[in-house]
Amino acid sequence: MGPRVEIAPSDPLLTYLQSAPGPVELASLELDSVAVRDLRKAGVALVVPLISQGELIGTLNLGSRLSEQEYSTDDRRLLASLATQAAPAVRVAELVLERAGEIQARERLEQEMRVATLIQQQFLPHELPKLPDWQVAAYYGPARAVGGDFYDFIELPDGRIGIVVGDVTDKGVPAALIMARTQSVLRGEAPRLVAPGEVLRRANEILLPEMPARMFVTCLYLVLEPATGRVVYANAGHLPPYVRTVDGVVELRATGMPLGLLPGMAYEEKEAIIDTRQSVLLYSDGVVEAHGPEGDMFGFPRLRELMAHERPSSELLNHLLEQLHEFVGRGWDQEDDITLVALQRTGGGEYALLAEPDPAGAEAVDRQVLLSLSLPGEPGNERTAMTRVAEAVAPLGLPTARLERLKTAVSEAAMNAIEYGSRNDPAVPVQIEVWVASGDLLVSIADRGLSGPMGDPEQPDLEAKLAGEQKPRGWGLFLIKHMVDAMEVATEGAAQIVTLTLHLQGADDASQPV
């Protein structure tokens, strides 16, 4: 077999070999071809085309015979037969190599995505701030495994708190890295400068030389004084927040260019007072720009209308997301990241949050909150709880079997909380929290315990139930316990808290025996 000679795509030898009936003798070939001349210089006397499924995939190049005799008819027939058998094998080898390359590329991408996801998870708040006379709720739903939206809560001097919502103009790994860098800058500068306008101006100066081409960050930064309800805010090109007042829904507007776009920017600073029972909503454009099946957008007017009705913060976010999912319909391909942060000044009124459980063994610094919501204690909301938890844990990529068991456990626990803890009263809420800590996924369902403390899970005995020796129901906790890796039932005052644990690493997909 002769030396390897590259044949250019435009060389006429390619077309000739594609239709050649068998081995081609170069000495008698009359073609104005660079490849033919190169092959002759390399000492190639005979070229055998390798054809697979009508496509030329290579050649066998042979020099002169050692006996200096010409290739016989039998030689040509043998070479043609060999080429017929070799071509499919060569093609399979090429496909295997291509596939191996694709697998390696995908593994590199998946590794990059895992790293970017870890970066993003570390920078999103691990828990919501607990503010006297305020209720705070947040939701983050990336369009991909890794997104460009972010939100944050930053402790400031004198009991104030900085609230940030931002959006990087991209998705995926680059956006996650810029998001992490932006949050790092804001966390470093906010406690030192405090004033929103100064914080954004300084962040713009730092980010500008580091910003990749055609990328920038919109960002709203608001400083809240919980005791007085005073907010001071500045806006770097982000959507203005809504405030629900007795006179309707108003916008908190302030002007300013996005971060990382132009040098020497100044950011207008404004202030407002949030009165008792008023609510504030900070959001990203993934909400208003979501498209329905007919191509129409969810839009600002619809968001304002939904914001106009008084609801506790967690219920407001729950309602907004339910309306959004109803608008976009089944099979929605989320186009952009969605971030929502809601605050309500309760004044210590009826909408105070249930006490948030402190999960055993989960250090606060290791805790990443995925969902916090409050549902009215009415029948049917167990399905809402199951759906919202499944959406919150979707980025974790749980195996289908484990996800379905988790959904079953959440639905059953929420049903018990509604029936026994709230006595089916919509005015008595059920609080649901989802978080990741120390390699575990944890879900807590807390109720007001109106029916008294829960007993231990009862071993099912059908004959005993038929005989009236066991209650007709009461298998719920037993079922829940065998749907997850661990279950704890605790009381906190009158409240009862069921905490479900699912191990994220090293767990078998098979269900536990009942």
Keywords:
Beta-Lactamase; about 525 residues; alpha+beta; single chain; disordered C terminus; 18 strands; 12 helices; five-stranded antiparallel β-sheet
Give a nutshell description of this structure:
The chain has 12 helices and 18 strands.
Question: Would you kindly provide a written description of the structure presented here, covering whatever features stand out?
Answer:
The protein is built from twelve helices and 18 strands. Residues 348-365, 470-475 and 509-514 have low confidence and may be disordered. The longest helix has 51 residues, at 73-123. It has helices spanning 12-19, 34-41, 73-123, 173-193, 196-207, 285-288, 300-307, 313-328, 381-393, 400-421, 462-466, 476-481, and strands at residues 24-25, 44-52, 55-63, 134-141, 149-155, 161-168, 217-225, 230-236, 242-245, 248-251, 269-273, 279-283, 338-345, 368-375, 430-437, 440-447, 486-492, 495-503. A five-stranded antiparallel beta sheet has the order 4-13-12-9-10. It has a five-stranded antiparallel beta sheet with strand order 5-6-7-8-11, covered by helices on one side. Strand 5 and strand 6 (161-168) form a beta hairpin.
- Please tell me the CATH architecture of the largest domain by its name: 4-Layer Sandwich
The coarse silhouette is elongated
Name of the CATH superfamily of the largest domain: PPM-type phosphatase domain
Q: Which ranges are low-confidence, i.e. pLDDT below 50, for 5 or more consecutive residues?
A: 348-365, 470-475, 509-514
